Amino acid sequence: MSEANKVAIRVSGLGKMYRMYSKPSDVLMELLTRRKRHREHWAVKDVSFEVNRGEVVGVIGRNGAGKTTLLRIIAGTLDKTVGQVDVKGRVSAIMVLGTGFNMDLTGRENILLGGLCLGMTHEEVEGKAGEIIAFSGLKEFIDSPCKEYSSGMVARLAFSIAASVDPDILIVDEALSTGDMIFNAKSYARMREIARSGATVLFVTHSLQQIYDLCDKAILLERGSVVAMGEPRTVGYLYEQKVHEEMALLNEANIPSMQIASFEKDIARKAEVVSVSLFNQEGVPVAHLLDSESYKLSIKIRANQGVKSASIGFDIRTQTGVQIYGTSTAFCDNQKDVSLEKGNIYDCVFVLKPILNNGTYFISVAIAEFLSGFHSKEHYSLIQFVGDAITIEAKSSSVFPGLVNLKSAFFSLNLNDL
Ligand SMILES: Nc1ncnc2c1ncn2[C@@H]1O[C@H](COP(=O)(O)OP(=O)(O)OP(=O)(O)O)[C@@H](O)[C@H]1O
What we know:
Layout (H helix, E strand, L loop, with lengths): L2 H4 E15 L3 H9 L4 E15 L3 E5 L6 H9 L6 E6 L3 E4 L12 H11 L4 H15 L14 H13 L5 E5 L7 H16 L3 E5 L3 H7 L2 E6 L2 E6 L1 H23 L2 H6 L8 E9 L8 E3 L4 E9 L3 E12 L4 E6 L9 E3 L4 E8 L6 E12 L9 E16 L23
Parallel strand pairs: 3-7, 3-8, 5-6, 6-7, 11-18
Antiparallel strand pairs: 1-2, 1-4, 8-9, 10-12, 12-16, 13-14, 13-15, 13-17, 17-18
Helix pairs in contact: 4-5, 4-6, 5-6, 6-7
Bound molecules: adenosine-5'-triphosphate.
The site of adenosine-5'-triphosphate has 11 residues, from strand 2 and helix 3.
């Protein structure tokens, strides 16, 4: 396939501007007086990217970041203000819950309506109706009006219709967030299947887990612009770091003013991670964890400034981002208030006794500062988060399904009269 044919969606210099008026009469006044009475709000600003055929791409970002606006423009249901969007193939989009649904019609009637809107013929929809109803799991309700459905049920039907048309491009805007767990699992499997057939999937989610599990690429939007695009874990960690930082600022805003005054902003990091290493009992650096041994995790940090009440911690995640365990100097069993003196380098050591199943795992580390002191740890500021600082291979001497070995033993088998 030529490079040009590989691309399913090409977005360049895309922008969507809304005119914001402080009161409705300003619209008319602007027309009459020809004097500007609005301010411009760019919901999507100078966005450019490409998505290849067969790729599953997740779009993440805070509320109002522009995710829905971007997807709607690509799906062709919203006009752009500037830029170019090239989409190759049949697009099937599930936009904000049940858009396009007539809530007075029954589920069955909406299947027909939705199918026709997505470009299927009457016969095609009739032929697929059984499959759509079965996938939605709404057989008992299919002849009831949609207004009697819960929002999760509407989402299930919307997804089932859109996923049935064998689209070249499937666009899903958070429709799945209201579905139940079983339906979501089915939908994700279907999205994967659609991608495997060579189609492209573009979806919005607030779940980083979905990004790690499903996507080949992730796009992070912030105030209408792309701030990162690429490998899902890298983009996901950046997003996590940004959220942590914002939460820390919120916490900072909540603490008494004296402490706010002592908290310096816009400075280089107060402390930073210099190295992260794992050692066996003999003090030899290792990249493997055996479940029969214990290890030391060393996190070396440099204090660029004094930090009165710090916490240094780590977590272990699977390749798909599932957090298996995390702890810190402030939250482990023998928790400790750590203070750092400017200019010193510290080696923070944790002892580990892994009980992990075979596989690859990632250790991330972080340094934080308690703004309200060690004894009320709810206000903290993240100083540094290093995602996937080291990668380790775990080897288990037992065979078991799952991620961790809870070392359960067979106890007894007795006859029991009910
Ligand atoms: N019709 C509209 N008129 C004016 N502003 C709008 C309109 N639609 C969206 N916006 C603004 O555009 C920005 C992006 O909105 P959008 O719905 O795309 O964000 P989002 O990332 O999907 O948010 P969420 O996660 O909450 O669904 C927001 O600031 C929103 O207020």
